[in-house]
Amino acid sequence: MLASLSLILLCQLIGEVVVRGLGLPLPGPVLGLLLLLLLLLARDRFALLARGPLRNDGVETASKGLLAHLSLLFVPAGVGVVQKLDLLASHGIAIILVLALSVIVTLLVTVLVFRLVSRLLRQQEVP
């Protein structure tokens, strides 16, 4: 499991270095996850080519262990909220309004995109 966690963290580190080095507008951990996905897909492809059994790598076990304790990652965010309670008290109404407005805009855009795509698909079906 230690090697698997090291692989996960190494992919995250590589992603962070590439993003900062190239100045990409993308979070480093996201690029690291994409790299990890590519590595896992390559591992599966090589296992299929070798016609050997796909052994259960520790990455799955390590990721399940991380997901089991995912709630611990919210502790720093909760501490940050508690530290900024005075700021939340002074700007709380504005924050709530912005959050509500962003949810409404997101829902409206989603509905519009869905309707547009369904209309386009309907036009393609009719000859």
The poorly predicted ranges are none
Shape: flat
Oligomeric state of the chains in view: single chain
Secondary-structure element order, as H and E?
A: HHHHH
Total E-strand runs:
0
Tally of structural domains = 2
Based on secondary structure, the structural category is mainly alpha
Number of helices: 5
- Mean pLDDT, nearest integer? 86
**Major sheet attributes:** none
Strand content: under 5%
Radius of gyration: 22 Å
Range of helix content: over 70%
End-to-end distance: 56 Å
Organism: Bradyrhizobium commune
InterPro entries: LrgA/CidA (IPR005538)
Transmembrane segments: 25-42, 63-82, 88-114
Subcellular location: Cell membrane
Summarize, please.
82% of the residues lie in helices and 0% in strands. The chain is mainly α and 127 residues long.
